[in-house]
Amino acid sequence: MDAMLIQALCIAALKTGTPLLIIALGELICEKTGVLNLGQEGMMLMGAMAGFAGAMVSGSLLVGVLVAMFAGMMMAWLFGVLTLTLSSNQVATGLALTIFGTGLSAFLGGSLVGNTIQGFKPIAIPLLSDIPFFGPLLFNHDILVYASFILVGTSWWVLHKTRIGLVIRAVGENPHSANALGIKVIKVRYMVTLLGGAFAGLAGAYMSLSYTPMWMENMTAGRGWIALALVVFASWRIGYLVLGAYLFGFTSIMHLMMQGAGIDISPNLLAMTPYVATVVVMVLLSSNELRQKLATPMSLGKPFDPKRQ
Asked: Which region is the signal sequence (predicted)?
């Protein structure tokens, strides 16, 4: 395999893994506060549909991205009302949100199927994009891929180096102690839940405005579910999350190459490859049971009532 082919594979893997990285990053931050939102798939589909519709109607890709993020936030707000205000079960509500988002996106986006738009184009960063091998790999992408790089770095810095990150982790570990210290636990959880919705909407926008500039039903192909698994298997660590997202992208491209090479294996089995490989590797990374328990937010999925201590 020559250097040009390896470079092309890595670039394709990075692009394929980007939407998974964005949505998983939002879920990781959300779970750090103790909120378990299983509605990622539904929010991502709504973001993809709304972003495509917004871009097609307005003629602006930026408007499409903003509309997608708003749609994701509205879905997350609905989840927040049900779980944070009305204290409904987070697991059941998240599953219902995915079903709702899947059906609503298909219904509202029915008339959009078959339409195409001019999606985001790569922007080469002067000088950096000319670096041998790594230049085209890292510095010749569209604006949403660059945004994913920034989101990863910013999220890590905020979670580990700022007071905001300390508050987020405190709420996730012991909300009652955080409340006793004057932290508005429900407010923090609402804000982070909305942020997770915005990330899901952005991931959906990437799917319909960049990766494949079109809309079709269920175009996210289960990435919302894979994102949920990645967060757990990555032990709520951003570095492992990045690895898992790009691994998924790499295996997705490899299985297409295997099909193109005419390997005599069922196409259905080959299509399973990226999901199986991602889960297997992330299970190996999270095989330390003690480390996994220590990394899990103590209040994950548990409702909080400030009136009860």
From this structure: none
Q: SS3 breakdown of the chain: % helix, strand, coil, rounded to 5?
A: 75, 0, 25
Residue matched to tokens 């405005």: 209
pLDDT tens across 74-103, in order?
999 999 999 999 999 999 999 999 999 999
Distance CA(52)–CA(183), nearest Å, equals 38
pLDDT-derived band of residue 263, with 50, 70 and 90 as boundaries?
A: low
* Whether 44 contacts 264, CB under 8 Å: no
Burial 181-197 (b: 16+ CB within 10 A, else e): eebebbebbbebbbbbb
Is residue 158 within 8 A of residue 164, CB to CB? The reply is yes
Instruction: Measure the CA angle with vertex 303, ends 48 and 227; round to 5°.
Output: 30
Cα distance between residue 106 and residue 96, in whole Å? 16
193: amino acid identity, one letter? T
The helix (H) or strand (E) run that includes residue 124 is strand 123-124
Contact 43, 224 (CB under 8 A): yes
Q: What average pLDDT score do residues 32-41 get?
A: 95
CB 29 within 8 A of CB 227: no
Predicted pLDDT of residue 194: 97
The CA-atom distances, in angstroms, between 247 and each of 23, 169, 213, 226 are 15, 27, 23, 12
Q: Which domains does the chain have, with CATH numbers?
A: 11-127+141-221 (1.10.3470.10)
Q: Which residue, among 106, 90, 116, has the nearest Cα to 46 in the 3D structure?
A: 106
Q: Running DSSP on this structure, what letter comes out for residue 110? A: G
For residue 309, pLDDT over 60 is answered with: no
**Model-level pTM?**
0.91
- Give the residue carrying structure tokens 């879905």: 75
> Counting beta carbons within 10 angstroms of the beta carbon of residue 161, is it exposed (0 to 12), middle (13 to 18) or buried (19 or more)?
exposed
